[in-house]
Amino acid sequence: MSVPLIRLQAVSVAYRVRSNRLFGHETVHALTDADLVVNAGETVGIVGESGCGKTTLARVLVGLQRPTTGSVVYQGQSLWQMSSGDRRREFGSRVAMVFQDPSTALNRRLAVETVIADPLVIHSVGTRASRRERVRELLDLVGLPGSVLGAYPGQLSGGQRQRVAIARAIALNPSLVIADEPTSALDVSVRAQILNLLIELRERLGLAIVFISHDIQTIRKMADQVVTMYLGRIVETCPSSSIPQSIFHPYTRALFSATPGILAPPGRISLHGPVPSATHPPGGCSFHTRCWKVTAACRAEFPPLSAVPGAPGHTYRCIHPESAAASIPGGNEPAAAGADSCDIQSVGVSETEPTSQA
Fold first, then answer.
1. Does 200 fall in a domain?
2. pTM for the complete prediction?
């Protein structure tokens, strides 16, 4: 059995922040007991509403955030047991990140050529002439003309800046790229172009990608595996082919209902009840304050991990799971399989979340 490219084991991240009181601090539980496996060449999609821990998970994967507890294992080696030099050479050159907003991710004082060549300079790759040639090759890979080499980020459109950011990310031929909502800051007209670019680079370069988004429709088109997060916890992991036919966690179904369908829109789910705080998370299942299937058992303890029989890699944490034939509250049935089938041009245009009414 091959060794996973990267594995998170029981990873938790907690931050100390000032409280509303005159003295004292509180703890924000940004990530709790997260287990995740990313294999070489695989695309894993992370989906959930704002504040659910997606970006914290991305920072842990890329080595920008050290876990409070748990371990990060890269190709069989514990990341935080490596020396800083080994971590920089062996991990820093093989894992890259594409940030959400290219206008802030790129240094506006540096020309495009300097921005893209920066990883090559930092890791002492090649000569000045070979680096210049590599930059031109990268521009061609991301679909930008050579005329932008001397331009500055402020002179480019949002889509062009994101292409520059992607070129910088793949400069060192990484094994893994983490894309943290790479299209949410872009105009609708260019989102599909960036998504198609990532798909093309994945196939051409054999990249593993962790793709983060609010939009589960985009995730299911981009990813092999879909990971649903809620309040810092991973509540369901499933193959993208299981959506929407075999969704088991109510929150995953609520996310799917919040996205527009092309032919038959899914039944809309309105989530009622208070949105819990990451500073004072509720006991039991973290989703129970908004779930329409809640019982006393849900409030008592966090659900154990359950596996779906006959569906390798499909796990969830719910005492009262949904089923393929489950009814949506209000009498609407989930969209039929394939009812919203479309190419990538039709997705990635909605950053919606389930309706919440406190």
1. yes
2. 0.86
